[in-house]
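Could you join me in thinking about how sequence relates to backbone shape in a protein? We need material for that, and I hope you will provide a protein of your own picking. Once you have written the record down, we can walk along the chain together:

…
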Amino acid sequence: MTLFPRWWPRGITPPTMPTHQRIFQISQETKLLTKCHWQPKPRNKPTVLLIHGLEGCTESHYIIGLSHKIWGKGWNCIRINQRNCGNSEHLTPTLYHNGLSQDYRQIIQEITEQDGSQLNWLIGYSMGGNLTLKLAGEIGSALPSLRGVAAVSPNIRPASCVRALQRSSNWIYHHHFLRSLKAKLARKNQLYPGKWDLSQLANIQTMWKFDDIFTAPDGGYQDAEDYYAKSAAENVLSAIAIPTLIITAQDDPFIPYEIFTNPALAENPFITVLAPTHGGHCGFFQNQQPGEDPFWAENRILDWIQSQIAKLSKN
């Protein structure tokens, strides 16, 4: 369920779906590369912003698939590369990590103020899901144009998720992520030589160690444990004050279902959790249903946003 959807044909981008590359200035030294799809008269349309997961990018299959559906609904869509992703290493001297939720607040504020986008939804997958929920908890109701958020397979307790990822049964996923992160850091070091000491890079065998030596100190954390604890979205779930959808599978191989027993999820009336028995990690492949393709979670997200829009129109 986790691997199969990656190779399922997604079809071509609709010819009527224009793509505009846009770079958002996050800070004096950091920019984010995005792909924007604006409808005619975009100010009058909802805008859905998408954040990929660890070592993904704007071209990840689930980001492409959902963007096509969003466009088909007549809504605007913005696909966001996290820092250093999608060949954007040159746009920031920093590494990306689970705690950079304010990057996405900056983007939403810009499209609100400069583009007049007043109906915005933020959707995140995996690590992007943690960032999405973290932002929602941090802002409360302080960003009125953000009407709701959704998170698919979010790693809301990073330490537990990294431990699960490092199990022997998950070696294929762990090896993929770690190898990719090492290669990215090596490329990054060519752009910013001497910023990181790579003498230990070849000997690192776990994600935890990589974060301990590189990710955590680069992000201003003491070590991996401090980084995981402070960047966890579960810390702010009780503060979420906008409509929120969480989709997670009980058989996700490295997002333990037990982390979703947090009382804040059940007690917060703004949060809805869908937790099917099967779905893997960001997979959720279903048998063909009338009017739907096989990607169950993407269809549920669209239904949920549509219901939120309907509620807003009644107010």
